[in-house]
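Structure ticket #2291
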Amino acid sequence: MEVGTGQTAAFGAITIIGLLIIHRLIQRIFDPKSTLRANFLGDNTALALREVGDVLAVFLIAPAIVKNCVLGENLTHDITWTAAFAALGLVLLELTGFVGMRVLLKKKLLVALDRNNKAAGVAAACHVIAMGLLVSRAMAGNSPTSIGLSLAFFAIAVVTHQVLLIAFRALTTYDEAEQIEGENAAAALSWGGLSIGVAIILARALTGDFEKWSTSLVGFGLLAATSLGFYPLRQIVVSGLIAGSLPRFRGGALDEAVGRDRKIGAAALEASCYIGAALALFLLA
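Resolution: structure written out below.
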């Protein structure tokens, strides 16, 4: 049965509002001082940036859930599975958003945000947006079996995302965690662009119907492997052709501009190339 535009819009709006309200309640439980007024009208820009990432991630997740769960045949069925996947998606977003930044900054993230480290705010926002992209593509289905598949492939995607980020961090001659902790917004923007770019590719790899484990895993792996193209993109295109320096296997003018000189423009260019290339692949693949 074809779902009407009005019904889809209603489910989408209710899901978005519901997720935002529950997200705020979770924030208040773990951080009683956190309020929308304090975050967005207060003096702590880092917390505001992190919250912006959370809100954008919710807007990414909710439509994907509605698209997969609302069939228009049975209202009770649609409400039940939309609520179930929305709750699961929010839990996964909150968990992976927190754990992923702990991997980067260890126990220093909350301290960095509390002392208004804007670089930490940028990194946290970008990371949760990346996780929102993965959650939005993994939360597909409307049955108990599909929940199990969603969890399995989401776990695979998150682990792959972290492994690729760690591998790419070896390309830089500076320590991203140290630079972000030291309030280097350029390093945070560079890392954040990479995180989102890799997530876009992995989100594309998660798209499609499940056939069998071997076929699905091979397909996921082949698409995920295309993110390795970020290496020549960084070292040859961005650092070499655009920045005007000789390409190197590791390091180079881009590292100096971002890690040493903290040039926001260079970092923005690097981040936009990652995201642009990933979006191009997403649309073409």
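Closing remark: The two ends are 29 Å apart (CA to CA).
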